[in-house]
Amino acid sequence: MPNPRKPAAGSARKQAAPPPPAREERSLAVRREAKAAFERVLSEWRELGKLDLPAVRRIVEEYVLLVPGDAKQAPPDLRVTGEYALAHPLNMLGYCLQVGKAMGYSGNDLRALGAAALLHDFGKEIPESHPDREALARLDDHCRTGNRLLVELCPGMPREVAEAVRDHHERTDGRGPMGSKKASDLAAIIAMCDVFDSRVTHHPFRGATSPHVSFRLTVNQGAGFPREVVDAFCAAIVPYPLGAPVFLVDGRRGEVVEVDPDNATTPIVLIDGERADLREDPGNRVCDLVRGALPI
Fold first, then answer.
1. Do residues 247 and 236 touch, judged by C-beta distance below 8 A?
2. How far apart are CA 147 and CA 128, in angstroms?
3. Is residue 128, in this structure, part of any structural domain at all?
4. CATH number at residue 131
5. Which residues contact 172 (CB under 8 A, 6 or more apart)?
6. Residues in the chain with pLDDT < 70?
7. Which domain holds residue 86?
8. Three-state SS for 157?
9. What is the Cα 265 distance to its own chain's centre?
10. What integer pLDDT is reported at residue 137 of this predicted model?
11. How far is residue 41 from each of residues 151, 195, 198, measured CA to CA in Å?
12. Residues 6 or more apart in contact with residue 165 via CB below 8 angstroms
């Protein structure tokens, strides 16, 4: 099992300088536009049973340009907040593109991964309360439902996208609704990022786990994912990315301005205009994100 505190060999990030203001502004603008566009996509799907595939492709393309292509460059904060059915797919898009780029994906392969990440829960009904046995059965079947809907409604959709949606709950050890051990790497990337974001995101019927705990729990499930996907996840995903508003153990609030690749729970944080290096404060660390603090 790889060390979740340390990226895969050859892809370690150096301590990154704070991103330029233009990059932060671009990230914020892209996320705002993507959230509004995907909200329209979901509304059209719910009301008309129609999927605006060109809009999906535009959202994916904007995120492809936003995610750094250099593994040594720490990613910006790509999260959005709000309704789970809206925020979760967009957060998945950012995570999956980061992992895909760490694995060397580019061009159409990267865009297919992004589309599958954004649409992975296309056939899922999000329960408002803890699901009962009947609701759990429907949840287990949402992968097949999403695959069928994409095949029927989007004849121009690449086959690998629909297949990744179908297989994103399968595991290499045979656990999963269909018991398949032969899911694609696209499906495996989505599967691993889905486990992480499902833990770190508030659901209608349960709360969220802190990102660093979610990260470690996800990596500890690595036996269900291909080794190369686990290594790329460890290299690409930062629990507390640049620009993220965070709470410290001592109760103070700050913003992440520098990431330590060897220990993502001890970044450099800007607090009241002053930089605090948590590596020099053994008794302190980030304990969680500031929930709901994002302006999107």
1. no
2. 23
3. yes
4. 1.10.3210.10
5. 181, 183, 188, 223, 224, 225, 226
6. 1-21, 71-72, 125-140, 174, 176-181, 203-206, 292-296
7. 21-238
8. coil
9. 18
10. 55
11. 17, 24, 21
12. 116, 119, 120, 122, 123, 143, 146, 147, 150
* 280 domain-assigned: no
Specify whether the CB–CB gap between 268 and 74 falls below 8 A: no
Cα–Cα distance measured from residue 55 to residue 59, given in angstroms and rounded to the nearest whole number: 6
| Residue 131: strand, helix, or coil | coil
Is there a contact between 161 and 112 (Cβ–Cβ < 8 Å)?
A: yes
In a domain, residue 91? The reply is yes
What pTM was computed for the model?
Answer: 0.83
| pLDDT value of position 16 | 45
Q: Report yes or no: 189 and 170 within 8 Å, Cβ to Cβ.
A: no
Report the Cα 178 to chain-centroid distance in Å: 24
**What does the DSSP assignment read for 88-112?**
HHHHHHHHHHHHHHHTT--HHHHHH
What's the number of domains the chain is made of? 1
Residue 262 CB coordination number (10 Å): 14
> How is residue 259 written in tokens?
């990431």
Q: Do residues 211 and 239 make contact, with C-beta atoms less than 8 angstroms apart? A: yes
* Residue 2 counted as domain residue: no
